Amino acid sequence: MGEIRVGTSSWADQMLLRSGWYPRAVNTPAGRLGFYAERFGLVEVDTSYYAVPVPETTAGWVAATPPGFTFDVKAFSLFTGHPTPVSALPRDLRPAGGPSRVRRRDLPAEAYDELWNRFRAALEPIAAAGRLGVVLLQFPPWLARGAAAERRIVETAERLRPWRVSVELRHGSWFTDEAALRTLSLLREHDLSFVCVDMPQGFASSVPPILVATADPAVVRFHGHSAAWGSGDKQEKFRYAYGERELRAWSQLLVELADGVDELHVLFNNCCGGQAQRDAARLVEFLGRAAVAPAGVSRSG
């Protein structure tokens, strides 16, 4: 059975910092990441979605964590088709004038390629240390299934090779009837990890939690089941605590999924205060001997 790595989406969310999960004495960025890495062997970097970090920053993340710790990194928003604030771009790549938010078509090809160069440069220190898990391509809810969308997924992923890439799709058209088989086949054909998402159902952005691995590692993200998913702000949408019965049931499903891969990455994104960290820790308990212990500790059994 493959190793199961459990972690959360972000270790420095402002609500987490205010929640009291970190001891008061742990009050520096490096100290917090080190504290986190003592408890989990995996984290998802979400800040890279909002701005491209510099290599000095990512090298600092590596220095703050022990051998064996893994970073999954979310791709910059512009790369996956999200309207991106001009202020999120490096100053020398910002277009003069125009709207306050831009998409790929709003940038010269040279500027867009340079953004990719800088993103790859930011990942290099993590990859060189053997700490890069996958780069997450989280596509927007309006990306419907179609030939052009399929090409976009593949072309975007190719810019990240030879690194591992995971794909999260958030439009129901990818999973209706026979479309689900075609979607999974596409990802499998191009060696892309399908991101299974546990989330509220019945909304335009809802996708079913299909537990399948299309590439290594397999990836599962937990968004929770807030009743305010369709109407609340970000805090209300993700305010959810997984119960013991849910986590026990998921632990059994995750062990089965891990049986066919080298690694399974499990990430809690119910990021409201320290709830994701508490739920992740509880899941590790239920996974027991099947779970990877804190970074650097091998699974036994």
Indicate the low-confidence ranges by residue numbers: 289-301
Strand content: 15-25%
CATH C-level label: Alpha Beta
Class by SSE composition: alpha/beta
Summed up, the helix count is 10
Strand order, main sheet: write it out: 1-2-3-6-7-8-9-10
SSE blueprint:
Elements: E1 3-9, H1 14-19, H2 29-37, E2 42-45, H3 47-50, H4 55-63, E3 70-74, E4 84-85, E5 101-102, H5 109-128, E6 132-138, H6 147-158, E7 165-168, H7 179-189, E8 193-198, E9 218-222, H8 234-237, H9 244-258, E10 263-268, H10 275-287
Parallel strand pairs: 1-2, 1-10, 2-3, 3-6, 6-7, 7-8, 8-9, 9-10
Antiparallel strand pairs: 4-5
Question: What's a concise summary of this model?
Answer:
With 301 residues, this protein is of the alpha/beta class. The protein contains ten helices and ten strands.
Structural write-up:
This protein has 301 residues and is α/β, with parallel strands linked by helices. It has a single domain (3-290), classed as TIM Barrel (Alpha-Beta Barrel), CATH 3.20.20. 34% of the residues lie in helices and 16% in strands. The strands form two sheets. Strands 1-2-3-6-7-8-9-10 form an eight-stranded parallel beta barrel, surrounded by five helices. A two-stranded antiparallel ribbon has the order 4-5. It is globular. The termini are close together.
